[in-house]
Amino acid sequence: MLAVEQKEAFMSVVETRAGEPDSMKMDELSIENTIGKPLLEKKISMHCREVDVFYGDKQAIFDVSLDIGKNEVLAMIGPSGCGKSTFLRCLNRMNDTIASCQVTGSIRLDEEDIYDPKRDVELLRARVGMVFQKPNPFPKSIYENIAYGPRIHGLTRDKVELDEIVENSLVRAGLWKEVKDRLDDVGTGLSGGQQQRLCIARAIAINPEVILMDEPCSALDPIATAVVEELIDELRQRYTIVIVTHSMQQAARVSQRTAYFHLGRLVEVDKTDKIFTNPGHSLTEAYITGRFG
Amino acid sequence: MKAVIEPGGHILKRFDEDMRKLQKRVLKMARLVREQICGLQGAFSGKDEDATEQVVEGDRSVDLLEVKVDKFIIRLLARRSPVGGDLRFIVTASRIVTDLERLGDEAVQMARVLEREYGNLGECNGRAVEDEVRELLALLIELFDQAMLAFRDYDCQAAKELAEGKTGPDGEMQKRMQRLSACTLAEGGDVSHAVNLVLILRSMERGLRYVQNIGEHVIYLATGKDVRHKGA
Known about the structure:
The complex is a heterodimer of chains A (about 290) and B (about 230). Chain A has helices at about 5-10, 85-90, 120-125, 140-150, 160-170, 175-180, 190-205, 220-235, 250-255, 270-275, 280-290, and strands spanning about 45-55, 60-70, 75, 100-110, 110-115, 130, 210-215, 240-245, 255-260, 265-270.
C-alpha cells in the first residue's frame, strides 16, 4: 500500500502547482547561438556564417550562423528588438542604406558572397526580393507597378514580353482575376490585401530566387492574411521565402522551419512542427507559449 | 538548455487559470475513479453490501466529468491555440481522461461480476479468491496513485518505470494474476467461478494497462516523445 505521506500528497491533489509563479528565471538561462541541423549543401539557398551586425557601437546581431534551404519557408520569430528584422535585411543588403550599420561575417547566395565589394547590389536585390510590413505600391498604375522592375533590369525585349511578365506575376500573386480589367487603375486604390499581393507580384516580376517578407500581414485583416498565406505556400514551389512574423500561428501555418531569435542571438532553429510542439530551448518554449515577449 | 515549463507563468493570467482548472478536473476525475476502485475493494471484502452499487453509481459521475473535461479541452484549444508544453499538457490531459473513464468502466465490470456471484468466487490454493482480488486491487491503487502523482509532478522517471512495468507493485500484480489464472485452470472446479474469475482478471489486466498508459502520457508531457506501442 501507499506510504502515508504519498497518500496525503495524492489526496491534496487539488492544491496543484499550476498557476504558481513560474520557477524558471529567464536571467539564469544562458543564451547560446545555435546553427540547427545542417542542411545538405545542394539544398541550401543562402548560407550565413558568424554574422554580426552593429549600429554604431551597439551590437544588434551576435554571431548568427544559419542555412536557408531552397524552396522552403523559413519563419523568424522572437520578441520585439531581438534582431530578426535586422538579420532579414542583411540578406539583401538593405542595411547598406543605414550609414552607421556594419555587417561582418559571411552571407552567401548560391556560393557567392553577397557582401563582396564588387557585387552589384541592385542585381542582388533583384535576386533577393523584399516585401515590407506595410504595402507600398508605387503611385502608378497596377500595370506599371509590375512592369517597372523588369524594364529597368532589362528583362524584356518588347511590349509583348512585358505584358506576359505582368500577367504571369499577377497570376502567381493570385491577383490577376481581380485586376485584369483595370490594369490602368492606380495601385494605391486597391484594398490593403490586394496592395500587398501587388507588392508580392512586383517582387516576383524580376524572377528572384529568394523573397524576404518582413511582417507582410501585420496590416491586413484575417481574410486578406489567409489569402497571402495561401499565396506564400504556392510561391514556395518556385522561390525560397524568409518571413519575419510576430504571429506564432502564422509561423506555424506557413513555414517548414522556424528560427527563434532572442537579444540578437539565434537561440534555436528547427522544423516548425518541432518548435511548436517540443522546442529544444526553454527560451523558445517560454516565448511561444506566451510566458514573456 | 531545456527545462520543463509547468502550466503557470503565462502573461495571460486567464490562461494560467484555465490550465489550473484543467489539471484540477483531471485530478478530480482520478479521485473519483480511485474511489470506485477502493469501493470495489470494500465490495470484495464482503463487509459493505452496498459497495458494488456505489461503484456502479460512481461511474456516472466519472462519465459526466469526462464529458465536461472534454468540452473544456475543446474550448481551450479553440481559444488559446496552445503550443509547446501547453499543447502537450492539454493533449496529455485529454488522453488521461479517456484512460480514467475506461478504468472506471473496468471497475464497474468487476462489480457486476461480484453482484452476480453474491460475493462468492470460490477458492484458490486454499484462499478465498475474493481475498486475492482485494490484494490485487490494493496493488492497482498503489500503481494508480504513482501514475497520477507522476502526472501532477511531471515526474518522467516515475512515469517511465510505470510504462515499462518496472515498479514493484506492477511485477507483483503480474505474478499474482498469473498464479490466479493458473489456479483456475488447474483446479477445474465450478465453471461459473472460473468464468467469473477470468472476467475479473481480464478487467484487472486492462486496468493495469490503463495505468501504464498514463505513465506513457506523462512521458510525452515531460519529453515530447510518444512511446505508445513502442515500450518506454
